[in-house]
Amino acid sequence: MKKTFEKNTFNKRLKSMLKVDTRRLIISPFFYIMVGISLVVPILILVMTSMMDGTVSTNPQTGQETVMHGFEYVWQILGSVSSTSAEQSSMSMDLVSMCNINMMYFAIAILVCVFVCDDFRSGYAKNLFTVRSKKTDYVISKTIVCSIGGGAMILAFVLGSVIGGKIASLSFEMIGFNAFNLICSIISKVLLVPIFVSIFLTMSVIGKQKSWLSICLSLGIGMFLFMVISIASPLNAGIIHITLCLAGSGCFAIGLGAISNIILKKTNLV
Amino acid sequence: MNAIEIRNLTKNFGTKQALQGLNMTVPIGSIYGFIGENGSGKSTTEKIICGLIRQSGGSVKLYGKDYTDIDIRAKVGVLIESPGCFPNMTVWNNLKLQADNLSIENPDDEIRKILKLVRMEGSAGNKYKNCSLGMKQRIGIAMALLGNPSLLVLDEPINGLDADGMRIMREVLVDIAKKGATIVISSHILGELEKIATHYGIVRGGKMIAEMTAQELDESCRRFVAVKVTKTDMAKSLLMRKYLRIEEDENQYLRVYDETTPEKIVCYLYENGVLINEIKTDKIGLEEYYIDLMKDKGGR
Fold it and tell me: Has residue A245 been placed in a domain?
């Protein structure tokens, strides 16, 4: 007895996989929680730091006084203006440099790891991979959908920053950049997301159902690249930054996507 | 051409050899009962067929092509161990995801049809985590049935089902097989499996120790004459004097496995003053055949 099977083209497979992942992201409360956090965090940071601005704390043992410095203007929470001067480009560990949009890439790691690990933890991977012997569509789809999710978190953070700035009555003044640069900077930050998503996705397929392992690996490996964010997307960004971020995203997505694909192919999925 | 052809399949988990050169042939359109003890390699074989784990050696062919063929694999339905559903999603959304995964046209109609088939139409809005074990099992079956699969791989699908659920499941599987689908079903509930299976494969220690059709099994099952008497002990000692293989089953029937007729036994016992309450001829079922086979192969 001869049995014929319908041709399952790459386009058809990718389309169906994108549908699955998009539906999962849209109906998942976790995604909305993460976007909500991205919206609320900058509001809290801006309001709290403006309240603490100028506060003097004294070390009871040494008697040394430390003055807390908050944000001078809203856009500082989205990054800094790149400069060639050694003084400005040196690493500083104050509140402004720690509590900014870069934190969101840590949060994106959690979103990606939980999103991917849920496939394996719930056992849905069995249904997915039984009908998909090629893992490429899975990797591509996850990269695209998680990048959209991560992009939404970045945009929510930008929106939260504007709201927080209004509440804290901070200045919206643009020093050393203009509105076009700001938009380019935000676009660059969104375009950086696929770079991190590719790393987190690779770590997630290594960890599979162990989301804690994926998150630890993602944060560990991702940390090496977090410093790139401020360099690649400064507040005075231009088209060149967008182009570089786009090219970087493409390279990382393809390179790490291929690695994820190999890991899925060569390892047991359940 | 067969639906599944496995040759010399091996799988090692570290130093443990889960499969040791397993061979398996599943004809198209058959309901293949895959039987074996816990840890004998059934689930491992099924996972390899579905591409969920990689084999260490050997070949697996589905419909004459390598098991990684994308077109064939798109028509495989699976229920291995537990249904792969997201606990916080509703039953409907879980099925909808699988319908998307399979690129089903008119997914809503298809889902309604499948839910009706597994008698779950009233529970579509329930969260998966709130469903009972039996309901979850039926959802798993519904997931596997979506997209009209050509090959169904079911691992313990009737676990947790009540009597009515088992009957429904039997009817569903027979109906699907009639439409041309091939079903590989592993279960420890051999009595249920016996009602539907057309072929059997018995696996032990990672090797296939017997493969046969239902007809071949029927022919190789031992026939016996079973009698129920009032004086069981006396009848037993009498029968043991004349016949070689006598056993008492759990229902207090004395089984005579030797070549004989009920008439001869009735006459013999009557002549020796034993009255018979019931007498019947029968043969051992799949379960007893399996136990016998395991004993022969040095098992229990």
Answer: yes
Could you tell me if A132 lies within 8 Å of chain B, comparing CB atoms? yes
Residues in chain A: 270
A12 shares contact with chain B (CB less than 8 Å)? yes
Q: Could you tell me the residue ranges of all domains in chain B?
A: 2-219, 223-283
In chain A, which residues have their Cβ closer than 8 Å to the Cβ of B82? 123
Print the domain residue range for A44: 10-53+65-266
Tally of domains within chain A? 1
Give the best residue of A26, A32, A131, A262 to mutate against chain B (max B CB count within 10 A): A131
- The verdict on A131 touching B (C-beta cutoff 8 Å) is yes
Residue A266 touches partner B, C-beta closer than 8 Å:
yes
Helix boundaries (H) for chain B: 42-49, 70-73, 91-101, 107-117, 133-145, 163-178, 190-196, 214-220, 232-242, 262-271, 286-296
Task: Please check whether residue A133 lies inside any domain of the structure.
Answer: yes
Cβ–Cβ of A123/B82 closer than 8 Å?
yes
**ipTM of the shown complex:** 0.84
Task: Kindly list the distances between the CA atom of residue A157 and the CA atoms of A107, A143, B155, in Å, as whole numbers in the listed order.
Answer: 11, 21, 47
Model-level pTM? 0.85
Q: Does A33 touch chain B (CB under 8 A)?
A: no
| Contact at CB, B70 and A2, closer than 8 angstroms | no
Cα gap A148→A191, rounded to integer Å: 10
The residue of chain B with its CA nearest to that of A14 is: B101
Query: Do the Cβ atoms of A130 and B76 come within 8 Å?
Result: yes
Pick among 3.40.50, 2.40.50, 3.30.590, 3.30.70: CATH of B223-283: 3.30.70
Task: Note down pLDDT in tens along chain B; length 300 residues.
Answer: 899 999 999 999 999 999 999 999 999 999 999 999 999 999 999 999 999 999 999 999 999 999 999 999 999 999 998 899 999 999 999 999 999 999 998 999 999 999 998 888 899 999 999 998 888 988 999 999 999 999 999 998 888 788 888 888 888 889 888 888 999 999 988 888 999 999 999 999 999 999 999 998 888 888 889 999 988 889 989 998 888 888 888 888 999 888 778 888 889 898 898 888 999 888 888 888 888 888 776 644
Contact: B100, A23; criterion CB under 8 Å: yes
Q: Which residues pair with B276 in a beta bridge?
A: B229
Point out the residue among A1, A7, A268 whose CB comes nearest to the CB of B28: A1
- Contacts of range B64-69, beta carbons closer than 8 Å, 24 or more positions apart: B64/B1, B64/B2, B64/B5, B67/A133, B68/A133, B69/A5, B69/A133
A2 occurs within a structural domain:
no
The C-alpha of A23 sits at a distance from chain B's nearest C-alpha, in angstroms, of: 7
Superfamily of domain B2-219: P-loop containing nucleotide triphosphate hydrolases (3.40.50.300)
